[in-house]
Amino acid sequence: MGSTQFLMLASPPSHLVRGVDPVIEGAELRGLEGVPAGIINKRIPHNKRTGRSRPVDPAAGALVFYAQRLPTSSFGDITRLVTTLLTFSSNCCLYGAGAECFQDKISLFLDRVCEDLALKEKHPNVSLCCESRDQQRQGCFENLRQSRYVQLPALNSSESLQERCLGYMTDPQDFVETLLYDISKRMRLFPTQTIAEIVRASLKTYSTCCSESNFKTCITTMEKQTGKVIANIITEANKICKEYKEAGSWKTRLWAIIIFASFHPKSVIGTALEFAATYEKTAVKCCELSELTSDCFLDESEVLLNLFCSKSRTAAHGDCCLQDGSDRARCLNQIAMQESKDIPEKIQLRTEKLCEVYNQHNARLLIWYTFEYAIRHRQENLNSVLTEVSKLKLVLTRCCAETFSEACLSLFLPKLLFVILPRDPLQSD
């Protein structure tokens, strides 16, 4: 296969990332990293996060994409699609490129599938997906990827160790591409970068053992070690479970509320709480091996955005959610900016019952303030919001222990985000 420069999916806006100065990982269509195929000596720039430079074969990303969504297709079918895509991409770089070159990236990939008459004849499910357009078509192919009903034989079950080594020694590039194809269609939930690391780990067995006189014992021993390495790769790649375990239930729900508020500031806290509960269930499932989905390996911001769009509240939100990549987030942000104009700059409240509520429902009050603060400060990340929530908690803890709690609250709350209203004349003591 040849190679070309693949377009990258846009990174999420900075306010959708928990940390203060986050490193945004590449999305699924980024070139496959770590596969020593035909361009083993070509290097990408030094990676500031890992401190390493890693080999890249961008065309391999397309092979993974197609193999995962078309797991019953032959290796020849998949490589034909990749070749077609590369040819199409090259033509788009010419002067006067057609309008089809300006579609979103996934549509470009899927168009090549739907133009392949032989493939559609062989696979009725593919033909059925191609009858839909845009988001529906993408969803249909994603369902093919996620399907648990596609049963494939175990990897390498039909080849002896000798045959595998012979294949590796005779034509390393063909061996790599076939291994990539075989692993991708069996591990369909994993993103390209994870597949790359798994392929690298698997290839190390053959590069180490196939030149050894006792290669069979060597391969058997190394495959046991490789199994442990691959298990660790998968654990590290499961971003949603990892974030959930590090943050815990409380921070996970607060972060979901903050994200929801940033996209729909005119919503109500009850809706935000429902959103947060749904996201936490998603995160918990990602920590169960039997419940894994491809979402578990995406950036948290992308999963939250997908969840928001799956439950979009208005027609305008729905229209935005039909857009691709950064355009979707940008569109939703524009709606949120308009909604924010109608929200008072500060929270208006009376203090007479505040300590009673705080003492009885500490967590609920802090969640409420998280939501109210977030809809007024949409660009702030989790750490910044939690800092402000902590300030409120300190004020309430201090003032609610005072004899004259209302006076204390009236002194300190305006320094935060509050306007203190006069006592309600109808409110009895």
Helical proportion, percent range: 55-70%
Quote the average pLDDT: 82
Distance between the termini: 80 Å
Count the E strands.
4
Number of helices: 19
Q: What is the succession of H and E elements?
A: EEHHHHHHHHHHHHHHHEHHHHE
Strand order of the largest sheet: 1-2
Shape: elongated
Which strand-content bin applies to the residues?
A: under 5%
Structural class based on helices, strands and sheet pairing: mainly alpha
Uncertain segments: 2-14, 20-56
Biggest beta sheet attributes = 2 strands, antiparallel
What's the alpha carbon Rg, rounded to whole Å? 27 Å
Task: Please specify the SSE layout and strand pairing.
Elements: E1 32-33, E2 56-57, H1 58-69, H2 75-92, H3 105-114, H4 117-122, H5 124-129, H6 134-146, H7 161-170, H8 172-186, H9 192-209, H10 215-237, H11 239-263, H12 269-286, H13 300-310, H14 315-321, H15 325-340, E3 347-349, H16 354-360, H17 362-376, H18 382-399, H19 405-412, E4 418-420
Parallel strand pairs: 3-4
Antiparallel strand pairs: 1-2
Helix pairs in contact: 1-2, 1-8, 7-8, 8-9, 9-10, 11-12, 11-13, 11-17, 14-15, 16-17, 17-18, 18-19
Short characterization:
60% of the residues lie in helices and 2% in strands.
Describe this protein's structure.
The chain has 429 residues and is mainly alpha-helical. 60% of the residues lie in helices and 2% in strands. It has 19 helices and four strands. It has helices spanning 58-69, 75-92, 105-114, 117-122, 124-129, 134-146, 161-170, 172-186, 192-209, 215-237, 239-263, 269-286, 300-310, 315-321, 325-340, 354-360, 362-376, 382-399, 405-412; strands at 32-33, 56-57, 347-349, 418-420. Strands 1-2 form a two-stranded antiparallel ribbon. Helix 1 packs across helix 8 (172-186), helix 11 runs antiparallel to helix 12 and helix 16 packs across helix 17 (362-376). The longest helix is centred in the middle third of the chain and has 25 residues, at 239-263. It is elongated, with a radius of gyration of 27 Å. 30% of the residues are buried. The model is unreliable at 2-14 and 20-56 (pLDDT under 50).
